[in-house]
Amino acid sequence: MRSVSRRALVTGATAVVSGLVLPGEAVARPPRPHRELRGMWIATVANRDWPSVAGLTAAQQRAELIAYLDAAAGRKLNAVMFQVRPTADALWPSPYEPWAEYLTGVQGQDPGWDPLGTAVKEAHRRGLELHAWFNPYRVANHTDPSRLAPTHPARLHPEWILPYGGKLYYNPGLPEVRRFVQDAMLDAVRRYDIDAVHWDDYFYPYPVAGQTFADDDAYARYGAGFPDKAAWRRDNTDRLVRGMAAGIKRIKPRVRFGISPFGVWRNAATDPLGSATTAGVQTYDNLHADTRKWVKEGWIDYICPQVYWNIGFAAADYAALVPWWDDVVRGTGVDLYIGEALYKAGDPAQPAPWQDPAELSRHLTFADGYRQVRGHVFFSGKEVATDPTGSMARVVADHYRTRVRP
Question: Can you tell me whether residue 346 is helix, strand or coil?
């Protein structure tokens, strides 16, 4: 694996150098910045975090949302990534897409209040940034268009969608699709005082064995001049990122644009520029998302790779990926935040390090040795609030003793 930077960082009476703990070798650690981002995701797809179930009253939904914001403030966080477009629908009164089914249980049914508007107002009241989290292409977690709201754009334009892996997706290869999803997301930028637009790791869908994403017709129509379909697909994703960045800056230049990709761009065995990993998924090759390029070109304001593995995990070591991303962003002006897998803490299906409540705190201690790391974001809200293993409390005690501004 690619060796960890030779910077050392203090961990009690020991120092960590190139991934090895050397007793008695303590060196000065860079001071924690006066400002850093401390965030958490609030996932709404499939009622993962909020609302706890579909069909609650408006007052109950609001109370649950406020409780999450209070939990974030109580943990001395300063940002929430609130999922407002989980499946090509909306958690605000959008003229482009129907109300999300996760609110009332019926897609398109008005919940009687404005979750995004409330989230922005109440987050700011608590000193929290509100990053509006959108998923660009996922249409449904099933493959039956008739189950969508009658006015859903995917029903009005069935030529826009493709079934794959038990789900429905918009086809990223169609220019009209890219224009539409950008317009749908930019509506929230225009109408709300959000601090950032936030995307997750889903671009082209994750590979499913034995299935084909059937975009041959779009490739035949628009793929001239590309060496292969993969290059064309990456260009489609690049166009979406560039177009969204330009749209945000045109409407509200102060609103930031951040993306939280899968943590591995490419393995070093695939590309010498890649990380010392042997991950089964590479965003460049499998999701057709050239995340490294977006940083180098300065198309985004921040990147938050989901480094969801423990220190020492052989295929994708946290201690290999943080230095790799630190190197990628250096000199670009793009901020680096690390996505943290709080949800794995205490999960019996996870490797032994995750059974130790101190694992996540060790992540932040390690990342403190890399000056480009400007913060961390925890997945997700439910675990931040309930903290069943005490892992989040350990992070707060060790690293978040006082509140800071993002």
Answer: coil
